[in-house]
């Protein structure tokens, strides 16, 4: 469904991504692991053009197929179509503080997609029910726990009806007792067949939910495989060291 080839991204003199290739099948849950600074977040942001790589291609083959070649000078034309393919869930939720949960979820479909507000409202209410927040729709972010805010963030990302859901360390800002609610919501999405790429340190989630685990180090993918094979028999020294440290 999605083919990523040879993504390179440099910040100043710092080559952060040094040739990333990845294939993602429809319905697959891909978990990206790796030490801090290895380029995981940058890669996720490249997938929906929040960062622009200097080089590489991203192809989506389903629905409205697109191929974006970042070394092409006219790439800026392709950014909006690429961005609309995926919904992003951020570490720090990034909700609008002056909007209610419902208004946050309705924002993208109305402001960006210019869809009918009445229908969007019904869909947003259904999404908030799905993430377990039916009784919180009129509350503002400051009236919600971190876990609830993050579930609004998930509903908001779903509201644009993306083909791909991207999660950037969605539980790392949460108090430990709130982490499970968010992971359960993500598990439910995985069971529904959503295609997801998740950057996380939650090894248990990776073992239970991932179809493919990708380990990054120093801006490259050093190893990838099923969670069972990768955790039981890591091949690369960096993978072994990293997994050891997480256990
Ligand atoms: P990870 O998610 O694996 O911790 P990141 O993708 O966040 O790694 O960061 C990889 C490297 O890129 C780090 O050295 C970080 O300082 C650098 N970096 C990330 N974003 C920027 C930016 N906007 N400007 C400059 N350097 C950045």
Would you kindly provide a brief summary of this structure?
By secondary structure, this protein is an alpha/beta fold. It has 9 helices and 10 strands.
Order of helices and strands: EEEHEEHEHHHEHEHEEHH
Task: Tell me the strand percentage band.
Answer: 25-35%
Mean pLDDT equals 95
In helices, the fraction of residues equals 25-40%
- Please report the distance between the alpha carbons of the first and last residues: 33 Å
**What shape does the CA trace take?**
globular
Estimated structural class: alpha/beta
Domain ABC transporter: 2-243
InterPro entries: AAA+_ATPase, ABC_ATPase_HisP-typ, ABC_transporter-like_ATP-bd, ABC_transporter-like_CS, MetN_ABC_transporter-like, P-loop_NTPase
Protein name: Polar amino acid ABC transporter ATP-binding protein
Subcellular location: Cell inner membrane
Structural write-up:
Helices cover 39% and strands 25% of the residues. By secondary structure, it is α/β, with parallel strands linked by helices. The chain has a six-stranded mixed sheet with strand order 6-7-8-3-9-10, sandwiched between helices. A four-stranded antiparallel sheet has the order 2-1-4-5, with helices on one face. Strand 1 (2-11) and strand 2 form a beta hairpin. Helix 3 (101-112) packs across helix 4 (117-130), helix 3 packs parallel to helix 5 (146-159) and helix 5 packs parallel to helix 6 (176-192). It is globular. The protein binds adenosine-5'-diphosphate (ADP). Keywords: Amino-acid transport, ATP-binding, Cell membrane, Membrane, Nucleotide-binding, Transport.
């Amino acid at each position: 469904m999605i083919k990523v080839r040879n993504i390179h991204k440099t910040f100043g003199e710092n080559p952060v991504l040094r040739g990333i290739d990845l294939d993602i099948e429809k319905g697959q849950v891909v978990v990206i692991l790796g030490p801090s600074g290895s380029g995981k977040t940058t890669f996720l942001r490249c997938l929906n053009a929040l960062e622009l790589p200097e080089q590489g291609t991203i192809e989506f083959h389903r629905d409205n197929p697109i191929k974006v070649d970042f070394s092409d000078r006219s790439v800026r034309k392709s950014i909006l179509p690429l961005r609309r393919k995926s919904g992003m869930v951020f570490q720090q939720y990034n909700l609008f503080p002056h909007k209610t949960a419902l208004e946050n979820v309705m924002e993208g479909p109305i402001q960006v997609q210019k869809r009918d507000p009445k229908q969007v409202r019904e869909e947003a209410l259904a999404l908030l029910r799905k993430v377990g927040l039916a009784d919180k729709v009129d509350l503002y972010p400051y009236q919600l726990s971190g876990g609830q805010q993050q579930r609004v963030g998930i509903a908001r990302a779903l509201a644009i009806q993306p083909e791909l859901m991207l999660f950037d360390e969605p539980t790392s800002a949460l108090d430990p007792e709130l982490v499970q609610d968010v992971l359960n919501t993500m598990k439910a999405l995985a069971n529904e067949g959503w295609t997801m790429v998740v950057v996380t340190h939650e090894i248990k989630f990776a073992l239970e939910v991932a179809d493919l685990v990708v380990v990054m180090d120093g801006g490259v993918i050093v190893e990838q495989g099923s969670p069972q094979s990768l955790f039981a028999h890591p091949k690369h020294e960096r993978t072994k060291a990293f997994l050891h440290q997480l256990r």
